[in-house]
Specification:
It comes from Pelagerythrobacter aerophilus. Helix 1 (4-18) crosses helix 6. The chain has helices at 4-18, 41-45, 141-148, 155-159, 170-179, 193-213, and strands at 25-28, 50-56, 59-64, 68-73, 79-82, 91-96, 101-105, 112-117, 254-258, 261-265. The chain is of the alpha+beta class. It folds into 2 domains: 4-123, MutM-like, N-terminal (N-terminal domain of MutM-like DNA repair proteins, Alpha-Beta Barrel); 141-265, Helicase, Ruva Protein, domain 3. The mean pLDDT is 92. The radius of gyration is 20 Å and the shape is elongated.
Length: 271
């Protein structure tokens, strides 16, 4: 599933072609995404000017001058294709400017879009109650210390809770915990302030590095320009069960199940 860096990369790619442009055409090719398209979508988009693009957690945002924001989620395999040479039977939504055509392609159909009044975005059900953005200034040691205080659940699972930090996914939580030398099985409430002081910059670093590299390229994901990122080749622990720790400390990467997902870590250097 595309995670935060993949969505951020997608938004930045789209912004180069969409920001400030008027949408001259819009059409729904297939209505069978995870959720129905909102009523009036085509009418609202046609003729609207894109005033900006953004991201909240793993959602992309396309703001318009009509006070409405197109919110999209890429699901398992969704991606925007820019100026595709041919139509694809999995292109669900197509929007066009005078210069370019953009097709939201989603073979597995787990993605979805919605229209939300821009001024009410924070109250939209999927955003209400979300924690701070991991790349923003609101993610601090003090915030994590307060959010984790007294919690007995594993730190790895707590970091996946969108109410604590918005948009973190399995891959990057594993990688950040490795960089911070924190055992993912450790109870959240027992993680020291010193460890949290390592964790906050580790989260930012791993996300920013992946964004710079264009995403993790797992399975179906590709950037809007059709290229694949290469952060997957830099994983320290994710998917490396049985391989030696990159810290050359004699440790071997282990995989355990937590909350129905796999977790990779080095039991020697992550305490």
């Amino acid at each position: 599933m595309p995670e935060l860096p993949e969505v951020e990369t997608t938004v930045r790619g789209l912004a180069r072609f969409l920001e400030g442009k008027r949408l001259v055409r819009a059409r729904v090719n297939r209505p069978d995404m995870r959720r129905p398209f909102p009523p009036g979508l085509v009418q609202m988009l046609t003729g609207a000017r894109v005033t900006g693009l953004g991201r909240r957690a793993k959602f992309g945002l396309i703001h318009t001058d009509r006070g409405q924001t197109l919110v999209f989620h890429l699901g398992m395999s969704g991606r925007w294709r820019i100026d595709p040479a041919t139509d694809d039977r999995h292109d669900h939504l197509v929007i066009e400017t005078e210069e370019h055509r953009f097709a939201l392609c989603d073979p597995r159909r787990f993605g979805w879009v919605d229209l939300v009044p821009t001024e009410s975005l924070d109250a939209w059900p999927s955003f209400a109650g979300m924690g701070p953005e991991p790349l923003g200034d609101d993610l601090t040691v003090a915030h994590l210390h307060t959010a984790l205080k007294g919690r007995k659940q594993a730190i790895k699972l707590l970091l996946l809770d969108q109410r604590i930090v918005a948009g973190l996914g399995n891959i990057y939580v594993c990688e950040a915990l490795f960089r911070a030398r924190i055992d993912p099985r450790k109870a959240g409430g027992s993680v020291s302030r010193a460890a949290l002081a390592r964790l906050v910059p580790a989260i930012r670093e791993v996300l920013e590095q992946s964004i710079a590299d264009g995403g993790s390229t797992l399975r179906d994901y590709a950037r809007p320009d059709g290229e694949l990122g290469y952060f997957a080749t830099r994983f320290d622990v994710y998917g490396r069960e049985g391989e030696p720790c990159r810290r050359d400390d004699g440790g071997t990467i282990r995989r355990v199940a937590q909350g129905g997902r796999s977790t990779w870590f080095c039991p020697r250097c992550q305490r």
